[in-house]
Write a structure and sequence with these properties.
about 190 residues, mainly alpha, Tetracycline Repressor, domain 2, elongated
């Protein structure tokens, strides 16, 4: 079967990310990508210059998708504390099972090594925190900075789930975030006598 002459970058980068998820970032080579997408290794080198640029492009595309999903969930969830939980549970659905989550942590290493990718992570943190914050605008008991606090609680819940993944990740996240929100939204005021 002849090799394809063209393939959109989006498809090539999807294949690159699939290789990194399956076998780790070190397994992504132009030869492996060529075998996966059908383009010649020399064509891929011409497009992406080197492995570092290829990894960065694949991860930037992944960040773009996460940005889009975050904005979709921000538009479709109510501006209530329950909506904040739903937004984060919706973001948790993309992790899949424990193996997928563990593989994604290897990829996170690449994000942390690259200043441009770290900047994308910072941008997403800010967008996510603002979206969560907007869901608490009418809650008088909500502490200042609730958006980043709840995003941090969510990330912690994902990590703790990964050590004991007996229930679906979305269920674990929902339980954890419901308890977090209840600790201040439904708490009785403390009185000092």
């Amino acid at each position: 079967m002849p090799r394809p002459k063209t393939l959109p970058d989006e498809n090539v980068l999807d294949m690159a990310l699939a290789i990194m998820r399956k076998d780790g970032p070190d397994a992504l080579t132009f030869a492996a990508l060529s075998a996966g997408c059908g383009l010649s290794a020399s064509t891929l080198v011409q497009r992406f210059e080197g492995k570092a640029r290829l990894v960065q492009a694949a991860l930037m595309q992944a960040w773009d998708r996460l940005d889009r999903l975050t904005l979709e969930l921000a538009k479709s969830t109510p501006k209530t504390p329950e909506g904040a939980v739903a937004l984060l549970v919706g973001l948790s659905g993309d992790y899949g099972g424990i193996e997928s989550y563990a593989d994604d942590l290897m990829i996170l290493r690449e994000d942390l090594r690259d200043p441009d990718l770290r900047a994308r992570g910072t941008h997403w943190r800010n967008v996510l925190s603002e979206a969560i914050e907007a869901r608490f605008s009418g809650v008088p008991a909500a502490p200042a900075g609730i958006g980043l606090m709840m995003a941090s609680q969510w990330q912690g819940a994902l990590l703790w789930w990964s050590f004991d993944p007996r229930m679906p990740v979305q269920d674990y996240v929902r339980q954890s975030l419901d308890r977090f929100v209840a600790s201040f939204v439904h708490a009785s005021p403390i009185t000092v006598e």
